[in-house]
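debug: dumping io for the single-chain case to check the tokenizer round-trip. Nothing else runs in this session.
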Amino acid sequence: MTTTDDILELSARWAAAEQRADTAELDHITTADFTLVGPLGFVLDKQQWLARYRTGGLVTKTLTWHDVTVREYGNAAVAVGVHTQEAEFQGTSADGSFRATHIFTHDGVRWALAGMHLSPVGAMPFQPPAS
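debug: decoded output
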């Protein structure tokens, strides 16, 4: 199995765990210092991120992680893709498609998710000049 295969398998586990609100699995597949930067710029540490499910504040109906590319850097890997979800946070729609960067680390035994950064998908605000 290649690093890309490992990362894609771990990513599939993450997406499935988010849909199930499986905080035990999410806790297991992330590093102790996991950090999420949300699509509006807010930052959650691991316990805050997990608490959204523990309290029932976040309900994820569907979540797909697609158009993913993976780059490996020794004991780290970066995956960039599109995270599309149907979700509610505290009764308010949190549906959307987000360009996402996932950061993974390898501790010599296994890969773990160390961080995520989400940004709303939109058009470029400008077009670069033609060369």
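debug: round-trip ok. Residues 3-120 form a domain with the Nuclear Transport Factor 2; Chain: A, fold (CATH 3.10.450.50).
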